[in-house]
Design goal:
Length: about 70
């Protein structure tokens, strides 16, 4: 499963691989990147976007790939 934590609102999101339909990556020059999660979990808002600085974002993407997520 995938667990992401939104530190701003102190909320945790948990997804099984069956619930995630795809990831969408957007890069914001000089600021960072965002990862949008397209999912089927009815308990969460349809539009979930997580952002962070570029160095941390690379770490996130590499970790997702390491655990078998198709990013």
């Amino acid at each position: 499963s995938l667990i992401l934590r939104d530190e701003l609102i102190k909320k945790e999101y948990k997804f099984s691989k069956d619930e995630v339909t795809r990831f969408e990556i957007h890069r914001i020059p000089l600021i960072g990147s965002t990862l949008r999660i397209h999912h089927t979990n009815k308990n969460y808002t349809r539009r979930l976007v997580f952002g962070c600085r570029n160095s941390r974002f690379k770490e996130l993407i590499n970790t997702l790939k390491e655990f078998g997520w198709m990013v």
